[in-house]
Amino acid sequence: MRRGFLVTFGIIVIVAVVVFMWWLPAYRDSELQKQVEAIEAMEDLTTKKEAALLFLVENRMADREVLLRALDVAAADLREADDKEPLIALYQGLHEQNLTPWLRYRIIARLDRALIETERAASAEKAEDLARELLDVTDAPMEPYHWMVYFHQRSEHTDPELTLQVALAAGRATDRDEYGMWGSMLDMAYRKLLTSVVEKQGLEAALSRAQQLAGQTQLPMALVALNASVYDIAISENEGRAIEAAMAMAELDGLTDSNPMNRIAYDMAERGLAPDVAVTLSKKALELASSRYDSTMILDTVGWAYYAAGEYAEAAGYLKTAVSLMDETLTSDNEIVQHLLTAYDSAGMTDEQIELLAMVAARSVDADDPARGDLAALLVQRDGDASAIGELMAGLRYEGVKAAPAFSLSGADGETVTLDSFSGDILVLNFWSYGCGACRVEFPRLVELHDKYENLGVQFVSIDTGMPGALAEDFLEENNVRHILLSDIDDTVSDAYGISAIPVTVVIDQEGRAVFRHLGYTDELGDRLDKEIETLIVWRDTAQPEAA
Q1: What is the C-alpha separation between 445 and 533, in angstroms, rounded?
Q2: What is the distance between the alpha carbons of residues 502 and 440, in angstroms, rounded to a whole number?
Q3: Does residue 185 contact residue 149 with C-beta atoms inside 8 Å?
Q4: Residue 513's beta-bridge partner residues?
Q5: What b/e sequence results for 217-251 when a residue is b if at least 16 CB atoms lie within 10 Å of its CB, and e otherwise?
Q6: Which strands, in side-by-side order, build the sheet including 504-508?
Q7: What is the per-residue pLDDT across 107-127, written as a single tens digit (0 to 9) for each?
Q8: 3-state DSSP call for residue 431?
Q9: What does the alpha-carbon distance between residue 327 and residue 259 come to, in Å, rounded to a whole number?
Q10: pLDDT tens digits for range 234-271
Q11: Could you count the other beta carbons within 10 Å of the beta carbon of residue 520?
């Protein structure tokens, strides 16, 4: 009896200890997050900055996101200022503290950037000292290497040879494979170095330096980036050498990044240069596509390379697949759509050309869209007249349009917001993050459109795909944002909507159908979004029938 009691008691104690050990870090993180939120709410900037700096020093083992929020608060009023000296002093002070390694490396990258942005040679020398410091470590993540290479290769005061050393050192980053930016870093560094040699000593000297560099590494990712850079510097003066570099890229094994090969293959296809090499290179890139977006872009390159080779039907096949994968509404000015129409025309595939033009015209909100005129001309060519154009377009208005995925997120006020909350209204759903430059450029136009349509049964919702923080909140306040703001930290809604890059804007009609979708942002896209909303209002108010 006593033994059984002791065993039971021991089990209870063990369970209690396990539960406590699980609960304690969660409780600690929750309390620290509340402290940062309290700091963010402070009105006096000096007090806020001092509190954030103290928090960073005293809570060095806190959760990463909490520490990054505190770091953002500490630097919030300094990062956008023209005078970088106060920001440099802040980061230098933190650099001297005994902080956890990953945060120290993040601060090194931020300090490096601030020094480079002064555009002074003396500051660039200090930035290069930081670069050398990063060369000597083995436990740094990829991000500080990435930003250091990015800003150094843009500066006229930095040594391209040192920038290349940093890019190569990034190969030992602790999260190299997950971060996925090593190839682009090597591409930037090699191009900067060889371009600087061309400017100072000429092309032949740069090609000779490239040969030396090729003999110094066996890394496939480095060699593909080096050959891409050789192509870039040689293409305008020595096409033969550029083609050799492209062929060398196609022969490499052990690659993980498709971008350099796809970029060079597309340029060759555009120039009509060695299209057989462009086909081989682009198909090798296709094997490495890491996302739907990558596949779409590379399929376009493969198709366009086949077109340059005069194999029009083969080109049309690849381009049709690219169009089918596009995560946006088909428009007549889209380059992939234009490529497919051109391939159809050259292959004599008139029926397919008509079908694609009809689909584009049916969803167009521009009365002067060239797709309409091209469609009418082809119908006359095939049928003798264009009388069927109206019926053809009406039947395709909702072709491929699907119901928008349901979602449920909590708003800032704690209220649950769902797709059904907007039933009967037109909904403009925007996926963004403060860290995305194009997103910040797009936001003022969204605010403008919200103000224009808010009383016409049109709702706007912006879903933040990143981690909310003080900088994002300040940005939203500065832009007088009044529409609904939600956060999708765990990417549940982003995954449901197939978001692989941002910004993405989805326009949902009153029936819950995702009618229009756009990736990226330009001023022209903002104008199109305006017209799309106008068109959906007309379709709604004239009781357009639903698609079968």
Answers
A1: 13
A2: 11
A3: yes
A4: 403
A5: eeebbbbbbbbbbbbbbbbeebeebbbbbbebbbe
A6: 484-487, 458-464, 426-432, 504-508, 514-519
A7: 999 999 999 999 999 999 999
A8: strand
A9: 19
A10: 999 999 999 999 999 999 998 888 999 999 999 999 99
A11: 14
